[in-house]
Amino acid sequence: MGTLAVLTKGLGVVGGFIAKLLYAFTDLFLTKPMQAGLDYLEDTDLKTMGQEVKTFKAKTLWEKSGAVILAVRRPG
């Protein structure tokens, strides 16, 4: 095997090791998501998606009967 082939394989191994190491510690660099409390969720404005757009507070969904809400925050 030539010197260039050994060097290429060596760089590949080192690069792979560094990539795996960064992947293993990625969680340390990310901020932890905050959980939305009930006070925040019930005060959220919701809008319907039909022809006629209506706006109402999320609290009205579970005042009379149970409801399941998925809250997703889009960046930006």
Briefly characterize the structure.
This protein has 76 residues and is mainly α.
Question: Please, could you describe this protein's structure?
Answer:
Keywords: Membrane, Transmembrane, Transmembrane helix. This is Redox-regulatory protein FAM213A. The protein is built from 4 helices and 2 strands. It is mainly alpha-helical and 76 residues long. It has 2 domains: 32 residues; 44 residues, no CATH class. A two-stranded antiparallel ribbon has the order 1-2. The longest helix has 22 residues. The model has no long low-confidence stretch (mean pLDDT 85).
Work out the count of structural domains: 2
Poorly predicted regions? none
Order of strands, main sheet, comes to 1-2
Distance between the termini: 53 Å
